[in-house]
């Protein structure tokens, strides 16, 4: 009788376990990582290779929660692997507020004062504040690398010559002038197409491209200025600034060809099993997020 009861209990347990066993077809992955050639790669392998770089450019979609979460994970991992040698750079803060970034980083400025004065992006509390809090906890230096937005707006309206009137103090917030622009870079060529760069609109679109180049050149300049030999600078920026290894990457290589630079790009796809052809070689690593992922704004 006892043997029969034991057998029945085992059968019931087996049935229950079978009924609740995870089915691979029911998985709902939040992201996948791929190398440039489209081969899947683990987070650990990617992190190990990133740790060997001088500069890592994490290209995000600004409203993508998975990118923001993975940026935090990459920062944590690199801080552990390169203890005391990691600097965090952010497109989201402009050079004229760098003193405030530094004061907040060392605890001399509280949250309220910092957020009132540093012109943070609207999604700062959810998407970027965790990075700054991690930097404070891990004692990572933080640098805002972007050009003041009013300068970029002036260039978009009147070309790079609009910067000729900047005073000496203001010129400290931009890349050294004059700024060279290679209009043949894939990203800039694509901007001409997106904004209708025909003969009737060529001058206006060229100004928009110059404003983009101003941002790229300025971020590259302050990335270089902010890292010392042996340090790794992890930089967070919109994917378009580093996709296809142009934009920021191009300016970094013009100034310092020997830099070891690795890039990450964030893309969305309907399926996560394979990297779509259009995203191959877009970056050294590609973060693929489901197309129906919720957004932060």
Automatic annotation (TrEMBL):
Keyword vocabulary terms for this entry: Signal
Leader sequence segment: 1-18
Gene3D superfamilies tied to this protein: 3.40.50.11550
Stored InterPro entries: Cofac_haem-bd_dom
Regions crossing the membrane: none
Keyword Secreted: no
Name by which UniProt lists this protein: Iron-regulated protein
Source lineage: Bacteria, Pseudomonadati, Bacteroidota, Cytophagia, Cytophagales
């Amino acid at each position: 009788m006892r043997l029969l009861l034991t057998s029945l209990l085992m059968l019931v347990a087996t049935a229950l376990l079978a009924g609740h066993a995870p089915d691979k077809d029911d998985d709902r992955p939040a992201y996948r990582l791929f190398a440039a050639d489209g081969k899947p790669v683990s987070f650990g392998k990617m992190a190990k290779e990133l740790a060997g770089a001088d500069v890592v450019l994490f290209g995000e979609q600004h409203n993508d929660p998975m990118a923001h979460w993975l940026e935090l994970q990459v920062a944590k991992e690199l801080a552990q692997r390169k203890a005391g040698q990691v600097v965090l750079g952010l497109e989201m803060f402009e050079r004229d507020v760098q003193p405030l970034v530094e004061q907040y980083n060392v605890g001399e400025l509280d949250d309220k004062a910092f957020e009132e004065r540093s012109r943070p992006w609207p999604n700062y509390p959810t998407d970027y504040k965790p990075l700054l809090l991690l930097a404070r906890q891990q004692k990572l230096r933080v640098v805002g690398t972007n050009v003041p937005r009013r300068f970029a707006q002036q260039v978009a309206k009147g070309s790079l010559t609009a910067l000729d009137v900047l005073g000496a103090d203001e010129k400290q917030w931009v890349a050294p002038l004059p700024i060279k622009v290679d209009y043949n870079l894939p990203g800039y060529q694509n901007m001409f197409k997106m904004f209708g760069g025909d003969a009737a609109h060529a001058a206006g679109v060229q100004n928009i491209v110059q404003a983009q180049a101003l941002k790229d050149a300025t971020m590259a300049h302050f990335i270089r200025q902010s890292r010392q030999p042996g340090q790794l600078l992890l930089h967070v920026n919109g994917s378009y600034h580093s996709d296809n290894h142009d934009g920021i990457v191009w300016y970094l290589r013009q100034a310092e060809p020997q830099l070891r630079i690795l890039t990450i790009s964030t893309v969305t796809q309907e399926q996560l099993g394979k990297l779509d052809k259009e995203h191959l070689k877009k970056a050294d690593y590609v973060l693929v997020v489901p197309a129906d992922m919720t957004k932060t704004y």
